[in-house]
Amino acid sequence: MQRPLIIALDFKDQQEVKEFLQHFQQEQLFVKVGMELFYQEGPEIISYLKKLGHNIFLDLKLHDIPNTVKQAMRGLAKLDVDIVNVHAAGGKKMMEAAIEGLEAGTQEGKKRPICIAVTQLTSTSQDMMHKELLINEDINNVVLHYAQMAKESGLDGVVCSTHEVETLNAKLGSSFMTVTPGIRMKEDSTDDQTRIASPDLARRLGSTAIVVGRSITKQDNPYEAYLKVKKAWEESEE
Ligand SMILES: O=c1ccn([C@@H]2O[C@H](COP(=O)(O)O)[C@@H](O)[C@H]2O)c(=O)[nH]1
């Protein structure tokens, strides 16, 4: 997989997705379907996007007891998406179960979807983590610890902020994926994100992929915004 720019399709239904994709003509995209869209449209939205030839990250962030996650992943594997995910906070047994479920649900001869774990949401600040989650460690150590657990559990990578990528690459190797949301151009509003970074910083620090939502989807000209983010993401390549 090249280092993709993944567009978060945070829309309320398929009609809104269709209107958004009209800006992109025939371009093959890497898109992310999250809870908002999937809970409204179900597996049908995945078939629709696959028929259009797009790559898909199904971002449902599973977090439950190991058996429930295993069975849920068995079902999700049948959707044949490229990437799925869990919350690392569910622990190692849950993450191992996720992989078992994916392997069990993947058609013979096919590769199972890539599975990554959310470490700490990019909306979480160090202050919030200390005061609300009562995790009194440095956020960088927490992200590293969760990423180490994910690797030991057989996962392929993590979701983290751009600011943790260098450490994770150094400690866990750059083939362990770092998928980074919380991406903003300098003129964009931060919204509910706290650990943000620009696309070019993400590239320079070694993110495997960036996830971009509102900086593209909420712009007057989404295609122009996409090209601008893509240029910033790709042009800082050494
Ligand atoms: O830690 C995380 C994990 C997932 N996300 C998701 O990425 C997009 C970001 O959207 P923006 O509009 O670019 O802020 C969104 O779908 C989140 O659910 C994340 O932001 N942080």
UniProtKB/TrEMBL annotation:
Entry EC number(s): 4.1.1.23
Pathway note: Pyrimidine metabolism; UMP biosynthesis via de novo pathway; UMP from orotate: step 2/2
SMART domains referenced in this protein's UniProt entry, alphabetically: OMPdecase
Family annotation (PANTHER family): OROTIDINE 5'-PHOSPHATE DECARBOXYLASE (PTHR32119:SF2)
Similarity-based family: Belongs to the OMP decarboxylase family. Type 1 subfamily.
UniProt keyword annotations, A-Z: Decarboxylase, Lyase, Pyrimidine biosynthesis
Quaternary structure note: Homodimer.
Keyword Transmembrane listed: no
GO molecular function: orotidine-5'-phosphate decarboxylase activity
Keyword Disulfide bond listed: no
Lineage top rank: taxon: Bacteria
Short name of any one Pfam family annotated for the protein: OMPdecase
InterPro entries, alphabetized: Aldolase_TIM, OMPdecase, OMPdecase_AS, OMPdecase_bac, OMPdeCOase_dom, RibuloseP-bd_barrel
Taxonomic source organism: Metabacillus endolithicus
Protein name: Orotidine 5'-phosphate decarboxylase
Domain Orotidine 5'-phosphate decarboxylase residue range list: 4-229
